[in-house]
Amino acid sequence: MKLTTMWKDALGSLIKPAATQRYPFVRREAPEHLRGQLHWDPSACTGCGLCSKDCPADALEVIVLDKKAKRFVMHYHVDRCTFCAQCVASCRQGCLDMESDEWELAALDPRTFDIYYGNEADIASILDGSTEEEAEPAAAG
Fold it and tell me: Of 23, 75, 87, 105, which sits most exposed with the smallest number of CB within 10 A?
């Protein structure tokens, strides 16, 4: 590299504005089809477990408490998820959706990466371990 070319590039970079963005102080809109955090709609779910079976990262677990009463709990491991949306494509009922506006998922506490979706009482019973005999994962088949 010639010395004149190097000085020309160095002086030119002092005049140009910075190419970096001032994130997180100035936030831009997320792209429309960005795959962010997974959300589950339990009202249409049948507990079939296709989403957990087709997940390549093993990030989903559908825990069936009572299939007739439609009592399901979804355990979502955010830290395992590759955001491929295979679970969304596999769900026949359209219960799963990846939100494009929830993509800032970094955290210091690893417990925030375990998300439980479902009825609060069912989630509490799963976390307490009181329904371990009754609950069976839908992915085990």
Answer: 23
pTM of the model: 0.72
- Torsion of the alpha carbons at 113, 102, 57 and 88, rounded to the nearest 10: 130
Low-confidence ranges of the chain (pLDDT < 70): 1, 130-141
Per-residue pLDDT tens digits for 17-50: 877 888 888 888 888 888 888 999 888 888 899 9
Q: Domains for the chain: give ranges and CATH numbers.
A: 34-137 (3.30.70.3270)
Angle at 59 between CA 55 and CA 60, to 5 degrees: 80
Q: Do 61 and 53 meet the contact criterion of CB atoms below 8 Å apart?
A: no
The span from the CA of 66 to the CA of 121, in Å, is: 13
DSSP, collapsed to helix, strand or coil, labels residue 15 as helix
What would the two tokens of residue 88 be? 């969304």
C-alpha distances in Å from residue 14, one per residue of 2, 22, 77, 105, 128? 19, 18, 46, 35, 60
Nearest Cα residue to 59 out of 114, 132, 12, 141: 114
pLDDT at residue 93, as a whole number: 92
